[in-house]
Structure formats: C-alpha cells, structure tokens
C-alpha cells in the first residue's frame, strides 16, 4: 500500500493502529485535535485479550514497567463490607487465557504507545489538527482538517476514525453521531496507596456493589497509587454521600481522595456496520460502551490489530473483511456491559439473591463466563 492510512485520533486505538501498521510495513499518518498529548483519564484495565495484542506488538516489557498484574478480584457487598467472592487472576489468568491481566494508568499506557509509534519512521503524528470531515476520493479517502487556523486536506489509501465518542468520521460511514445517555456518571479519583484502608489491598482489584452504585479500585503506577471509580446515577450527591450507607472502609477510602472528577457515561446502540467504502471506525467511534466490563480500551486495541493485519494483507477489500471479523463482537459488548451494570446496581431482595448466587458459584464457572471476552485472539495469533 503506497499511500498512507489516515487515522483520526491519537488515543489508545489510534496509536495502537499506527504501531500495528508500522510493524507490518504499512505507513500511516495520525491527526490529533489536542496540541499536547497530556495526562487524561485515570486507570485502564488491560484484560488478557488486550495484553495479548499489546505483547504481540513488543510492548510487554514497557507495560510491565508501569503496570500492575493483580492477583485477583475481590467482590464485596458494599453496605455490609462483606467479601462475597475472590475471582483469581495472576498466574491462573495467564494459564487459562494465555496472557496476563494488567491494570495501568491511562497516561502511562498512552506514553508507552506514543514512544513506540514515534520510534517508527513509517508512522507520522500531527498534533493540533482538528478533523472536520472524512470522505472517499476516486481512488482512496481523505481527511478535511483545520490546522494552524486554516483548512487543510490530506489524501490517503483509507481513513480510519479513531476519534472517540464524538466521532466526526462516523458521518462518512453514514452512522449518526448521537450517543445514548445512560443516566450514569463515573466519579474518578487517584489515591496514594499508603492512604488505602486495609480492605483495598493493592494486590487485587476491588469491586464493591451497592444499591444503585458500585465502586472499582485497583492499583496503578506500579502500585504506588490506586485508581478509584464510583459509578452511580447522574444527579446523585457527592461521592461521600453516595457511600454514606456503605461499610466504613468504603467511606474512609472516599474521604481519602483529594479530588474527584465526574465523567458522564454514554454508550452507543449497536451499529449495523463498521465501515463504508474506504472509511472505517474503531474503538469508541464504532462501539462506545459502559465501563462495567472494563473493555472499552481493550476492544479498541482488538479493532486496531485486526484492521492492521487485514490492511497489510492487501486483500480486495480489507475494510469489508475487518467489518466481517469484528461486527458481531462489536455489537455484543455494549449490551453485555449494560446488563452487567444492572446486576452490579441491584438493591433489596434482588441484591441478596445476586450475592448468594455469586458466593455459591464455582470459580471455574465465573471464569468460564469471561472466556468470550478474555480468550479472544486475532485469527493470525
């Protein structure tokens, strides 16, 4: 492919795509609206499906320098503070799914990807370039840009929209930009590991389930800090009030956070396609999802490595092949994530039944329920 692949967006999906293309000898140009790729977001869970793909790109050592491999997940009944189940990860996850489960700060993951991309001569990154449109040309595709205060245009072989929740490139795929309001908000904070109550060990991911809300806590930055995410209804009170009826360790943890940032949560209804002509979508631009399964970044990574492989293979229509490979999985995730949120936020008798079922469930059955997510591997792997 003589002309470059044009990528809108330098998030996790866009950077992974550029790197995967470079590893296969395909050139790319990334255009990113931000003038600086600075620290955004908080933690990211890299389940085995994502870790496997990144390890195959040669990033395993760089990731392990900044990430943590948790030993397992503690699921806790938040009002009582009672541990319901430990779901093992660590070596058991590696044996079952063939790759580690990692947790990492989003900025650290982005830095690892960015360094790898910048080291590739065939991958170019332009910052401060806002994509205003994508379109097909007679023999390829183009991005219309606003950069340096004026319009610009760049043509390439294909265009890939990795431009997130508010994707502009969706217009060229004839899909609506509209997202679904979920009525939920994620309050996020970073807490020093030294300030964590004993109920939140940095060796594990902790998931606390309460009526109408749940909290996820896991280590980042090599275990020096913890990422805390408290998800509840939009319009609810401050984090301290949300956990006022939870067990004391949860209240103490929330009080230990210096600053909370609220992120309203949106997703998309499953789309009937992932491409049109020579324009394709990956990540949130294609299938934005709730964070309840921890798979937003992972699915963007999956999309990227599959698309890179198919473009490099040079078939008659690589974007159609990409859509065929990914569409069913992309349609399944948002609805599965919504179902998981509903389970996590149960109250009353429903919560009691959930807790009893979870406590009694064989570990193998719980792990088996994750096989469709964590056991994924690219067709070539």
Summary tags:
381 residues, alpha/beta, seven-stranded mixed sheet, 35% helix, monooxygenase, FAD binding
Question: How many H/I helices?
Answer: 13
- CATH-level-4 superfamily name: FAD/NAD(P)-binding domain
- Averaged pLDDT: 96
CATH fold assignment: FAD/NAD(P)-binding domain
Strand content: 25-35%
CATH uppermost class: Alpha Beta
Number of strands: 18
Question: Distance N terminus to C terminus?
Answer: 23 Å
Helical content stands at: 25-40%
Assigned CATH architecture: 3-Layer(bba) Sandwich
Low-confidence stretches at least 5 residues in length (pLDDT < 50)?
none
The figure for the number of domains is 1
Radius of gyration: 21 Å
Q: For the largest beta sheet, what order do the strands appear in spatially?
A: 5-4-13-14-15-12-16
Largest sheet: 7 strands, mixed
């Amino acid at each position: 492919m003589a002309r470059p692949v044009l990528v809108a967006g330098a998030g996790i999906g866009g950077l992974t795509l550029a790197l995967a293309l470079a590893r296969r000898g395909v050139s790319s140009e990334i255009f990113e609206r931000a003038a600086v790729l600075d620290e955004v977001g908080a933690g990211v869970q890299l389940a085995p499906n994502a870790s496997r793909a990144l390890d195959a790109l040669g990033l395993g050592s760089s990731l392990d320098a900044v990430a943590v491999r948790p030993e397992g997940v503690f699921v806790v009944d938040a009002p009582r503070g009672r541990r319901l189940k430990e779901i093992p990860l660590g070596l058991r996850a590696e044996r079952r799914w063939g790759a580690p489960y990692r947790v990492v700060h989003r900025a650290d993951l982005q830095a690892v990807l960015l360094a790898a991309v910048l080291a590739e001569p065939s991958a170019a990154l332009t910052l401060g370039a806002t994509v205003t449109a994508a379109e097909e040309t007679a023999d390829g595709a183009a991005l219309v840009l606003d950069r340096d205060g004026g319009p610009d245009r760049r043509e390439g072989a294909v265009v890939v929209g990795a431009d997130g929740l508010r994707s502009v490139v969706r217009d060229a795929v004839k899909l609506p930009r509209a997202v679904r309001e979920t009525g939920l908000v994620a309050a996020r904070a970073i807490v020093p590991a030294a300030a964590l109550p004993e109920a939140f060990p940095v060796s594990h991911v902790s998931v606390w389930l309460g009526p109408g809300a749940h909290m996820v806590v896991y280590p980042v930055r090599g275990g020096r800090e913890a990422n805390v995410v408290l998800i509840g209804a939009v319009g609810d009170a401050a984090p301290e009030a949300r956990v006022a009826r939870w067990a004391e360790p949860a209240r103490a943890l929330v009080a230990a956070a210096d600053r909370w940032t609220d992120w309203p949560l949106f997703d998309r209804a499953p789309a009937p396609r992932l491409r049109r002509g020579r324009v394709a979508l990956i990540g949130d631009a294609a299938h934005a999802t709730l964070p309840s399964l921890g798979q937003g970044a992972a699915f963007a990574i999956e999309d990227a490595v599959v698309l890179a492989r198919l473009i490099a293979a040079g078939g008659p229509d690589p974007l159609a092949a990409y859509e065929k490979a990914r569409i069913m999985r992309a349609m399944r995730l948002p609805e599965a994530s919504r179902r998981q949120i509903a389970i996590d936020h149960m109250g009353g008798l429903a919560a009691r039944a959930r807790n009893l079922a979870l406590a009694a469930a064989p570990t193998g059955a719980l792990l088996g329920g994750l096989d469709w997510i964590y056991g994924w591997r690219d067709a070539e792997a």
